């Protein structure tokens, strides 16, 4: 795998957009793409400007209007989705290596978790559309009312840097399954895997030209040109809350919808009756997988005071023992942060926590190297009001608070601007069900970390987002519900204008 890195370092790739079945010429502003483990340039991205975004949207519109995709049978769409699934698995090793190189996420995670999941999205939606249907209502005498789900049109799919392939593959699979065409915009920091996926799909001729299109570039240039484009029909966005609000503002002008998967500060509550070893395993994964750069991180820990000493000591010891290093090394558990800004962000939160009275239990420092490495960090706080307990840090950074009773911990867990996931560790089934009702989050996970089931919806409440990704949630996102009401017999109508 080290060869993989040196090959790209000595011969950086050129990344350009893709529209109407062809890659763009490398004419846009050149932006270096960095390997965060070494700080070196591994590719050069050529930014898509407004004109290139226009071309991509027009290609998607033509493909939608001319109908090769919206008009395709479910069986045709299924075949294409299965072909993309197979193509991802065929190239899994290479795509996982690119994802690791560009994001710093350990290769064992990109290879064993991200890639299979990226592929699975396409298979799942291929299967879902075969079983999915509309609804028929017959309660109104003399009428039959039908509800069908029509493709929405041209979807703008905008993804973040922390899990570029997996999260955007989910959007592509959903948009395509329901008969839409799309324009994809990855983060300009991590464009490598999606660019390669487009090459693979193009080389295999899986989709008609214009059905999928790619634009690359910075958020305020390419992202804004796409999300404010008058000819897109919706935006499916995953990223930060502020960016989400900005995109919703642009969409409001055109009275269009957007599905927003935004930030989180998810509580993970460990009750005294929990299987403590398992809760520890889950809390470690919830805080530190994906280098801690995870929207659904359960890194705001609440531990019952009866087990707090034991839990906190073990969590701190295990955090200090985490192996930080080259993400291609199979022993590595934590790779580098995505860039220098993230390193500085962690340092500023350590300082803020200390300034507000929190105790530093582990880490807190930067690791000297050419890359962007930090020590995994744990801070204990007596209050949920501290910035480290309220703001999304997006790093291997866990906070721990202790609690004494259920009502109190629910109030503190819900005291957050976010509401993505609530984690509960308990052996008491009734308690688990009570918390599932009372936690103000889009998802509640009981005795398990980071589990996603595509049949259910994933998304947040409050500032964590709008809409749900997953079977019916994605259908709501990527289709327009249409009602058709049919009179079964001639209804007696008042005959206006006839004098009767
Ligand atoms: P950002 O909000 O900074 O960026 C997300 C994407 O939006 C990027 O492609 C970015 O481009 C683009 N963008 C930025 N500004 C605009 C704009 N004005 N119009 C259109 N697009 C724009 O998020 P990050 O990439 O920093 O990702 C981290 C965030 O994502 C965290 O808050 C995390 O919680 C959230 N997230 C949420 C998930 C969920 O499912 N709820 C899952 C994963 C992450 P560029 O980067 O090129 O500037």
Keywords:
binds NADPH dihydro-nicotinamide-adenine-dinucleotide phosphate, 500 residues, 41% helix, 7-stranded mixed sheet, single chain, 6-stranded mixed sheet
Largest sheet geometry: 7 strands, mixed
- In which range does the helix fraction lie? 40-55%
The parts where pLDDT drops under 50 for at least 5 residues are: none
Question: How many strands?
Answer: 23
The total count of helices amounts to 16
* Cross-sheet strand order for the largest sheet: 15-18-19-14-13-20-21
Roughly what fraction of the amino acids lie in strands?
15-25%
- Mean pLDDT across residues: 96
Radius of gyration: 24 Å
Alpha-beta content class: alpha/beta
What compounds are bound to the protein?
A: NADPH dihydro-nicotinamide-adenine-dinucleotide phosphate
Alpha-carbon distance between the termini?
85 Å
**What's the shape?**
globular
